[in-house]
Amino acid sequence: MAKLSVKDIDFKGKTVLMRADFNVPQDANLNITDDTRIRATLPTIKYILEHGVEKLVLISHLGRPDGKVVAKYSLKSVAVRLKELLAQDVLFLNDCVGEKIKQEIDAAKEKVVLLENLRFHAEEEANDANFAKQLASLADIFVNDAFGTAHRAHASTEGVTHFLKSAAGFLLEKEIQYLGNAVQNPAKPFMLILGGAKVSDKIGMIENLLPKADAIIVGGGMSYTFLKAQGKQIGNSKLEKDKLDLAKSILEKARGLKKEIVLPVDNLVVDNIDLNAKSEIVGEEIPEGKIGVDIGPKTIKLFEDKLKSAKTIVWNGPLGIFEMDAFSKGTREVAQFVSTLGAVTIIGGGDTAAAIVKFKLESKMTHISTGGGASLEYLEGKLLPGVTALTDK
Ligand code: AMP
User: Fold this and answer.
1) Ligand 1 pocket, residues with Cβ under 6 angstroms
2) Is the pLDDT confidence value at 371 over 90?
3) How many angstroms separate the alpha carbon of residue 281 from the centre of ligand 1?
């Protein structure tokens, strides 16, 4: 990577400000229900602590408090969990800027300090220069390990880099390495699996990767807009009417580039999206009144046939409503197949990552992105402000 990494920094005697992504899900009693994001950043935290740092000041956002103090979005429980994971004391402070906070950090006996939610201040998302300067004044060096917010130019991801030497943490570096390689230099054949609810979310990615990919496999809700664009009956399945022309033009473009867009040839359909709904398999034409909720067995076989020669696979979007077990077979079977191929397998964040976790296949994939929006924007070919702002090597 062309940017400074934590490995390039001498941390001895320095106070480090580190942006992490501690945006973890919590239940009604504010217990953390999934600490993956905290654990994902431990390698960077531990590396910094093992390299003679004076103090490590951690900052993050949690939820969308929109510039106000909202108790349920406090990072307090993250401090507790972090203390357990590090087996080391963590001081939690109830704000993230100001003279008092600065003094408390200086006076702290603990090496690790976690500051309160950045987004309790509207200046964070507004990328306010003065707020960024105040954050920067807390430390000597800045480290960004929050890939999940790297696509946002906020005070703690972009603004702060104007005032401090800024390096990438291991998690951010790993994301850029895998996603970057997949986009710029994939081992071929390179195939894309796309699914999920909407075509509109994936257009940028299709446009950026169509010229590079050898095939694009499409399932899930978005496949029905493509099938409809080909003149097929799709019943009551998910349709983005205003994207029909776009779907047609993508299919034409693919034909022009001699790239294959592989669509479902059979579907699991129901009358209502309901746990106990009676389901049946139909062909590529979906009868009136029926809703497509998963790909069918012939499609699973077709997708597997296409994918078996792939050396790089990027997957974004489930192939059915995988959250409901009865409609999860297509996503599960294709995921299991992909995990045995020995190809570089890169899973976009968000729902696709959740599906892979649900099927317990995490350890069998090369890389599961921790940032849904950020990985999508990166795969769309956009520059991520949180990455470009870091100090060049
Ligand atoms: P996305 O965030 O765009 O990747 O969309 C993920 C969501 O798409 C998941 O919640 C899936 O349940 C949903 N999805 C996948 N297939 C279908 C389908 N056939 N109909 C409706 N929603 C779907």
Assistant:
1) 195-198, 201, 220-221, 238, 292-293, 317-318, 320-321, 323, 350-351
2) no
3) 18
- Same domain membership, residue 324 and residue 203: yes
**18 — phi, psi (to 5°)?**
-120, 125
160 plus 244 within the same structural domain? no
CA of 337 to the centre of ligand 1 (A): 20
Task: Characterize 209-246 residue by residue with b for buried, 16 or more Cβ atoms within 10 angstroms of its Cβ, and e for exposed.
Answer: bbebbbbbbbbbbbbbbbbbbeeeebbbbbbbeebeeb
For the residues 85-100, what does the mean pLDDT come to?
98
CATH of the domain at 342: 3.40.50.1260
Structural domain contains residue 389:
no
Residue 183 has pLDDT above 90, yes or no: no
CB 125 within 8 A of CB 67: yes
Q: Does the pLDDT of residue 227 top 90, yes or no?
A: yes
Looking at the structure, do residues 55 and 187 belong to the same domain, yes or no? no
357: phi then psi, degrees, rounded to nearest 5: -65, -45
Residue numbers of the domain that contains 74: 6-170
Task: Clarify whether residues 201 and 130 are in a common domain.
Answer: no
pLDDT value, residue 60: 98
Which ligand 1 atom sits nearest the alpha carbon of residue 372? 2
Task: Classify 175 as helix, strand or coil.
Answer: helix
Q: Whose CA is nearest to atom 1 of ligand 1?
A: 196
Average pLDDT, the chain: 95
Catalytic residues: 37, 198, 350, 373
Question: Confidence class of residue 34 from pLDDT cuts 50, 70 and 90?
Answer: confident
pLDDT band at 182 (very low <50, low <70, confident <90, very high): confident
Query: Of 145, 170, 195, at which residue does a domain stop?
Result: 170
